[in-house]
Amino acid sequence: MSLKKNALLNSIKQTCTIIFPLITFPYISRVLQSENYGKYSFASSIISYFSLIAALGVSNYAIREGAGIRNDKKRIEKFSSEVFTINILSTTISYILLFFTIIFWKYIQKYTELLLILSIGIIFTTIGVEWIYSIYEDYLFITIRSIVVQFVSLVLMFIFVKSRDDYIIYAVITVLASSGANIINLIYARRYVHLHLTMKMNLKQHLKPMLVLFCNAVMVTIYVNSDITVLGIICGDSEVGIYSVAAKIYTIVKNLLNAIIVVAIPRLSLYLGTNKLNRYYQTETKILKSLSIILFPALTGLFMTSNQIVVLISGPSYELANIPLRILCFALGFSVLASFITMTILLPNRQEEKILKATIISSITNLILNFIIVPFLGMNGAAFTTVLAEGIVFILSSYYSINIFRKMQTNFFKTFLMIFIGCIGIVLICLIINQILSNVFVSLIVKIVISGLYYLLILIVFREEDVTELIHKVIKL
Predict the structure, then answer these.
(1) pLDDT of 477 above 50
(2) 410, 432, 461 — which closes off a domain?
(3) Could you tell me the maximum CA-CA distance found in the chain, to the nearest angstrom?
């Protein structure tokens, strides 16, 4: 299956994962209110650290190493069983640490019920072995499964969450939505490999690169989630609830854009593993151009419509989330470009140590600044520290990848000019519509439609390859 189809399927999957909270969030934020939604968000941020321990960098490692041997049935089956066993072991350790944390950290004991419910997602994620489907680029099954599960969860949400005290039920349903079908994953995976637990885990071979990727993931989570954790400790549940609106919207857009990147990892690893360097550089160039064409107008539009989006999604009582969301738009640009560099350049080229260096520096800086800035600026300070963290990772990863960029040997001037003209037009369109329309919903829809048509026209005028190819296909039909 082509990278375009894989990217489309993975985007659909990500969209379905995103549509679930996007549809329900206007309802949930109003029903639970900022304090109880803040409790859920704080507990979720705590669980994210233990999810990382369970994950142990397995997914990225397995995709990178497994893609190169996927056609060797015996090797891939042995490799997959070893990795799966290690993942089960790390998950067990994660649960032990979680129980000790709840017992000895009195502050979070009031969130015990929430923490235990949300922790169910840890084991479901492990047994879901989604990395197997990425190795074999089977995004069709994952996409179909996600749509079905999200739909069922959506129905359950509206049936059972009725009052502000139903945040526990909300937690149960979100766990079901995110990982409830992973048992099916484990069974369906038998069409590719027969997984089994093994005493011969080959730790000497697997553990070091896994730990490097794990440490990197820990550092990333610190600078992604420490804002909510520190905000919850210092400012309380209500401010966490408001800030979580901005963080959720930011995460939604970031995940959609990262879907383009994730599907390329197995293919790029395959090209490098088979020494097809020309194909590797060509694919890298194409991904970067496509990503840039989508990324910059997306964050420009998000910045210009942030107030309307916040009000429509969560209601006027969350309007203060508008400012941190605008600040996070800058983090979005840094984050997605840094993901492109780390996931498609450094990771396939086995430069995990460089990724780790960048994220360690970023995470330590972010954590320190959170404790310094958040007490004074609250949620706006939390958003600002996220921008700094993402910016540091982007700058350092770009520096580490400079030799690869040189080998790509592509002139991006025309692409950047096209994007610049497009984004300037989006800003002007949004400013003009602000003066004409006052209704929040109508204003947002008109901005999206007119800006989208304008940007499409710019792509056509500049004869952007993918758009031109799509137009030719439509004409032939």
Answers:
(1) no
(2) 410
(3) 69
